[in-house]
Amino acid sequence: MAFLGLIKRVTRISRNNSRVRVYPARYLQRMDLSNTNSFHGEDAKLPVLIVGAGPVGLVLSILLTKLGVKCAVLDKATSFSKHPQAHFINNRSMEIFRKLDGLAEEIERSQPPVDLWRKFIYCTSLSGSTLGTVDHMQPQDFEKVVSPASVAHYSQYKLTSLMLKRLEDLGFHVSSSKESDSLALDSVVARQILMGHECVGIDANKESVTAAVSFLKGGKHMKRNIQCSILVGADGAGSAVRRLTEIEMRGERDLQKLISVHFMSRELGEYLINSRPGMLFFIFNTGGIGVLVAHDLLQGEFVLQIPYYPPQQSLSDFSPEMCKKLIFNLVGHELSDLDVADIKPWVMHAEVAEKFMCCENRVMLAGDATHRFPPAGGFGMNTGIQDAHNLAWKIAALLQGSANSSILNTYETERRPIALFNTSLSIQNFRAAMSVPSALGLDPTVANSVHRFINNTVGSMLPTGLQKAILDNVFALGRAQLSESLLNESNPLGYQRLGRLKSIFEGGKSLQLQFPAEDLGFRYLEGAIVSDNESEVGDSEVPSGRRRDYVPCAEPGSRLPHMYVRILSDSTREVVSTLDLVSIEKVEFLLIISPLQESYELARATFKVAKENKANVKVCVVWPSSRDDGVARESKSALAPWENYVDVMEVKKQSGEEASWWSICKMSERGSILVRPDQHIAWRVKSAVTLDPTLHMRDVFSIILGKQ
């Protein structure tokens, strides 16, 4: 009920913030939203401009291009970052990647073996004693029963490189600011990725959006205008689009400041492979505290996260030499091949944008531009990728004329509650991570309280050197709790603390990696869906930070359950996931039925209504898995004259398995399911449609496509 109440509050907030503000203030006339043609008229030079060439922006550009929508991407960076950044890819994102020309399969082939990253290790140093180990993989994670894809561990810059390959195959060209010299300042830039181009202004009118873009030419700052129908800001946590449109973030700021040290050492990678392989190493000793992310043990690529307390500490305090000394201390010995590649500060927030779109739905935000999470659980990039998946088909349906402009409202209606829920979940997971140092006698809130006292009270009047000395002494006093003389089972206090630590690990109360129930089971309660009276009332559980298993669900707004089926309509009789039946090459709905007369009647009505709405629909007829009974499993005559259908048969993974498709969906075989292009269920009926099927499906498509 808590999650439902949260969503109702979000809906009220969304409605209260429906007033549109335009930036700069040259928008003289509010656009009539009923005039859908203004979104795909000839006046707009470019249908969609994406600001930000990170994973979210690149995924959105791939999806839009595959759906037939021209777009371009720009990024203020002159080159793509080699800093590993995000690295955990959850089930749902991998399912989306399966549709992107084998991207998921290439990630699975290229990532380190799972046995090298399945564990989190807590220790006094990488060569010292182990305080605890948590294995985050369970047998069902590899069985592909609830999903055709497994989670992955793959650095963001490597993922970006694979996405760029796919964009190049789609005809995109990566252009530097130098190469843009040859482009006319008002030229169409479709299928271009413009690096070194910064969005510095946004001007909307009733026909289009114009982005003012700054770039260097011959050492001088130049500007050009790019006109588009829709502008999407996928430009990260410090989003320029969000700043230009004055959209505020809401939530908890400055949870923690850290220094991120990217370094290479094959020597360390080989040592850990042979001694204690893992993904994350939480290291606590009297000389320092840090979290080591092993991005690739085989290549010896790591990122060390160190607590950072400015202004008493500055970035200059973390020189490459100082970082090497700290790494040697946390490793427990020196490394002959240590190479510090990059050192950068960052701030952990837990915030969600007050709204996801503005300028009469012509400007919208996605990814970190709309939500900033603690990294615990890897929700940041994954939530952003799912933002793009939700948004792409809606933009395509609008621009291609099958949906009204109000369909874009459903992007915020659906995705903002998910962002709020994932924020709460990541905060809970972050607090679970903090329970480990607390059990060791290191209360993280003490250091933060002292730091705030120095910065915000009379401490700020003390000389800078004295402020730093006070902080250093507080940290040293805290780290003294980690001395070997204290932290051992012979010491009564140490015995108590180690016992508390063991209880945390065995009870699953430490930092978690996987959240199957949330990764696969998130559900839209309002939006481009048709709710039914038989749906359950949302998720009653408040985020706890603990792993929960996913239970398949076929309620409107849920992701379509996965089951393997055999295609009967072609000679190959290929086995695919039900998720694979949803097209990515066009905006196409999927109607899933049984081979019953009343279901065929509904299918023919759905074809007719889809054609009236200029929409595409495919019908999937699910035949039960059974012995050869002489019945021809073919639907051609039953669906004539309509031809866009596929006959499939259930595939039982294990002998004796009784679960059928309809039992997984908790429906009878007389039911039907309409699936959206993003693999979420738009509508279902658990038994037969009792009304005129044509009239009923007209109502259904009217709601989904925003034509009600």
Automatic annotation (TrEMBL):
<dbReference type="GO" id="GO:0008682">
    <property type="term" value="F:3-demethoxyubiquinol 3-hydroxylase activity"/>
</dbReference>
<keyword id="KW-0274">FAD</keyword>
<dbReference type="GO" id="GO:0005739">
    <property type="term" value="C:mitochondrion"/>
</dbReference>
<feature type="domain" description="FAD-binding">
    <location>
        <begin position="46"/>
        <end position="419"/>
    </location>
</feature>
<dbReference type="GO" id="GO:0071949">
    <property type="term" value="F:FAD binding"/>
</dbReference>
<dbReference type="Pfam" id="PF21274">
    <property type="entry name" value="Rng_hyd_C"/>
</dbReference>
<dbReference type="GO" id="GO:0016709">
    <property type="term" value="F:oxidoreductase activity, acting on paired donors, with incorporation or reduction of molecular oxygen, NAD(P)H as one donor, and incorporation of one atom of oxygen"/>
</dbReference>
<dbReference type="InterPro" id="IPR036188">
    <property type="entry name" value="FAD/NAD-bd_sf"/>
</dbReference>
<dbReference type="GO" id="GO:0006744">
    <property type="term" value="P:ubiquinone biosynthetic process"/>
</dbReference>
<keyword id="KW-0285">Flavoprotein</keyword>
<dbReference type="InterPro" id="IPR002938">
    <property type="entry name" value="FAD-bd"/>
</dbReference>
<protein>
    <recommendedName>
        <fullName>FAD-binding domain-containing protein</fullName>
    </recommendedName>
</protein>
<dbReference type="InterPro" id="IPR050641">
    <property type="entry name" value="RIFMO-like"/>
</dbReference>
<dbReference type="Pfam" id="PF01494">
    <property type="entry name" value="FAD_binding_3"/>
</dbReference>
